[in-house]
Write the structure tokens for this entry.
Amino acid sequence: MERSIKLDKITLGTCYYPEHWPEEMWEEDLQRMLASGIEVIRIAEFAWSKIEPREGEFTYEFFDRFLEKAEKAGMKVIFCTPSATPPAWLTNKYPEVLNANINGVLYRHGCRRHYNYNSPKYQELVKRIVEKSASHYASHPSIIGWQIDNELNCETSEFYSESDSAAFRAFLKKKYDTLDALNEAWGTVFWNQTYTDWEEIYVPRPTPSNSTNPHEVLDYVRFVSDSACRFAGMQSDILKKYVKPGDFITTNGLFGNLDNHRMTEESLDFITYDSYPNFAYCLDDYEPGEGKMRDRKWSRNLAEARAISPVFGIMEQQSGANGWNTRMEAPTPKPGQMTLWTMQSIGHGADYVSYFRWRTCTVGTEIYWHGLLDYSGRDNRRIAELKEIHKKTQCLSELAGSVYKAEAAVIRDYDNIWDSQLDTWHNAVEWQSQLSIFRAAQKTHTPLDYVYLRETTTIEQLQKYKVLFYPHPVLMSPERASLLEQYTAQGGTLIIGCRSAYKDMNGRCTTDCLPGLLKPLTGTDIPEYTLVSPEDTPPLINWDGQLLEAAVFNDQLTPVLPNAQVLALYENCYYEGTPALIKNTIQKGTVYHYGAAFNEQAAEVFLEKLDLKTPYEAHFTLPPQCEIAPRTKDGTTYYFILNYSNTPAVICLPHQKKDLFTQTYAQGTITLPPYGVKVYQ
């Protein structure tokens, strides 16, 4: 079932914390928000003590008073469950609710997200606060939706409490039933790790060289995801009893060790994402050099959100400088960047954009994480820009419900994502290829989607795309191989890179000749393979006279099926002259087996040869610093043109198109200012 936000227009919001400000400021803040184009606010995600100041003592007056003012002003509200920050009375009385690091040392009160999902006591107390909050507030006319927790698995996505070990055992008993089956799946015969009692099993603990059994760690990550999904589901089940018809349930962020698709399907109406492109300019994370994607990289993250909810929301959109007092120092957005990032989100599928935050907090860890207003609260450049953004979004109302349009996609799946986190060999090829394919698509102005291969994935979902990249499906199952074969047999084009299908779903290496379960698709055999040593001159692949660097890892390929055709050979290495790229035809479709990781050049060549490069060049001529993001609805396409550069960008429209911001028609040469945006129909 497709989960998407359903709004009749592009809507702006902000995050507001009435508990941070004197009550006499509330009305003025609400009026200023409305005057600036803000129609929705998010509240209460860190305010457990305002509802339950002491254990079992519930008071609703604080938010009652605030909601009364919100209703009077005409402001709509997203109310949040407060489980991300348990109060001091709770963690002091019940230390078993606390998460621990891998050494077993408990995290303490003073930050956030210091609880563990699997504490029975914490689950009990969360159920109660959610029940109390929902039963009291859900009927309020100002409330239009609920957010569960805040940024599940943010700060930490690893859990090592005693409760987690107990829950891990229960998870494994359900999955394997017997210890014999678990020992077989985990290969515990290696290094004498065989288990004879369930109580011998714990979540990963410190080991020499930090090298816990990889099959155990893979299941542990699955367990962490399962725990987060069940925690969200527990809250969602309570909220569903009370929410008004038409009100939604969501949560925010896309964080690690979490199957966001499952969580959305089981518990949410749609996903919301927290978009902070200013991370690209953080002092501790800045990438120097020409050609870096910087804030443009967030288009990839937005595509990941779109893979879960084709039309989604932004719960936190960058509006000011970011930084805690301990890390993440970054500059104030330059004039135009807030608009650029907002339109980046909308262009990629967001119909709701909520800015973090209205007022910059004067106390606590986030005193340098600026919102729309600075400490003084006076009007400023960003508020003026917000008002202009609102004018622009009013011109985009007809886009609501439209979806991003791409003919190419990258296949991802959680099992391989998680395996790449714990397997450095897998990680090296995976991220080389993921970032390179994205960069190549951006450079060639090729819209790109992400599609997740799951147990519920259908052939129809894959057939939306002319071409699918599946760079390194290290873990492979017969079911997934069969689905990929159906896709290609019915006319699809599949591109697979090196290091594919050499593990089963438990992370055990296959004894079959590589590429294992994918051999019927690729029509190849891999007699030998090697990591590319830093000692070596980078091997090259000659494809029709174009020399491509064979990045990171090389499979030497051999065609073994009648339709398998060699397209390219290795050069300047000891396996010079052996096949590096083989094309196999399967009924109506095609599979390309590429023997290396994808660098940007190789990805671009694939896009060009498969007729995906610059698909909209008949409509626009764009310089490299611009991105095109198309959204379609009822046969109409809307084109977002985004200039990520601090210099003007010259674009060309060969044919007349409607400028939605000015409601006039444009043709010929157009100059976008630094960080400028246009939307054409």
About this structure: Residues 11-401 form a domain with the TIM Barrel fold (CATH 3.20.20.80). The two ends are 29 Å apart (CA to CA). DSSP finds 17 helices and 25 strands in the chain. The chain has three domains: 11-401, 408-609, 626-680.
